[in-house]
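Quick log. Single chain, no ligands specified.
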Amino acid sequence: MCVNSLRKILNLPKIEKMFPEHLIINFPVNDSNKFPNKIASTLIFYSSNKGSFMQKQHQVHNLIILDESGSMESIKDTIISGFNELVQTISGMESKFPDQKHFITFVTFNGLAQKILHYMEPANLLKEINTKKYNPQASTPLYDAMGMIIKKLDLSCQDKTDYNVLVTILTDGEENASEEYSGKAIKKLVEDLKQKNWTFTYIGTDHDVENFAFSISIENTMVFQKDIEGTRDMFAKERKARENYSHKLYANRTVSDNYFDDIDEESQAK
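-> predicted structure:
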């Protein structure tokens, strides 16, 4: 059945005047005698701008936990520009993979506060951050930041079924100031969520990145040089890895492990 015929049957031209952007049509399976089975059993989105149908979008929640302790001051400007480019990359995934809808939750942390700058916001609506929103100082309570935002996001996703969560932790030092959560508690939290559809990545510098990440059950790690060039290179690799992640989701491949492996293989091949 062509799109124009289906539009007439559903009287979409009239409904489009009421909802010009998107329509959601739910065909009961028992109506399959009226419509092809593929259409009848699927929740369909119709975009009047594109004049086409697509299946319900898969939600991808991008959780970014960024160290804002005093030792990050030396690469502050590069971190800000890298994050803003990363947001554009995430937003661009929706055009490359239209079956996916991306959301961003962004948290910064130090010994003074844990700041939720964005929470489950559509990637295409986010504004750039600046020095007013990111101002490194104080200590590194990483466990508390992780425990707080991961539990909050997990609770918000309890009623969802068609989704994935990609967690990115970026820090230049090990935990040194948490009061509410221990390493043991965070390890268990990570292990429990990895059994669902959560993927955890850890990007670090100036400490034993792999050993610390492994201590909280995170295998996807990347080490970067703590200078302008090294930080820029890190963000470039992370953006590429994130694109690979979306492609794996599109291809129904596992996304829990080997997050940075493809990037490492490409670098070795050059």
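The CA atoms of residues 119 and 152 lie 10 Å apart.
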